[in-house]
Amino acid sequence: MKTARITLIAILALAMLLALPAIAQEATQQPDAPQQLWLPGQRFPAFDLQDAINIDLGKMGHNEAYGELLRMVASPADYVGQILRLTGEYFHQVDADTGEITHRIVVSDEGVCCQVGLGFVLTGEPRTLEELPQDYSLIEIAGVWGMMDVGGQQYPRLLVNEITVLEPAS
Question: What burial class does residue 82 get, using C-beta atoms within 10 Å of its C-beta: 0-12 exposed, 13-18 middle, 19+ buried?
Fold first, then answer.
C-alpha cells in the first residue's frame, strides 16, 4: 500500500512538472512589454505589468520553484515575453571598467544544495549601490522574461521595475 502511494505521488509530481511548460506557453504575453532582445547597458522606462503574472514561482515551494527556473533557463526562448514573479537571494556585481551594476537573483532548492541564478535588468534610471539591497537579502521581483545579447551569446534576463526586499541580509 505504501509503495503504491509513493508511486502515485511520483507519477502525479512528474505529470505536474511536464505540464508546467505547456501551461506557460498558453499564457498570454504582455502587450506593452519592450522588445525581447536587450543589450548590456541598455535603459528601459518602467512599464505596467497590469498584474498579468503568467508564471508565479513565488507561490511555489522551494523545490518546485528551483526546478521550474532551471527548466526556464535551459530553454529560455520558450518563455520570452512571459511575466514572471520569483523570490530568492539578491546578488550584484559592479563592472570595474564601466561601473555598471549587474543584478542577480538566486533560487535554491529546499536543502540549499542546488541553486539556479537569473540576471535581471532594472527599468528607469541607474540605481546607486546605496539604493540597492545588500547581497544575500531575500527579495521578490516580477518582470518580463527576455534575452540579452552579450558578446554574441544570448542569455535569459528579466526586465524588472523594482526590487521588493522581503528580508534584509543579516
Answer: buried
What are 127's three cell numbers?
Answer: 540605481
Predicted model pTM:
0.73
Domain boundaries, the chain: 2-167
pLDDT tens profile 94-147: 989 888 888 999 999 998 889 999 999 998 887 888 999 999 999 999 999 999
CA dist., res. 52 & res. 164, Å (int):
18
Return the CATH superfamily for domain 2-167.
Nucleic acid-binding proteins (2.40.50.140)
Secondary-structure percent of the chain, ordered helix, strand, coil, rounded to 5: 30, 35, 40
Nearest CA among 161, 78, 155, 144 for reference residue 118: 155
Q: Do the strands 164-167 and 101-108 form a parallel or antiparallel pair, or are they unpaired?
A: unpaired
How many helices and strands, by DSSP H and E, does the chain display? 2, 8
26's CB contacts (< 8 A; 6+ apart) are: none
> Cα(71)–Cα(118) distance, rounded to whole angstroms?
12
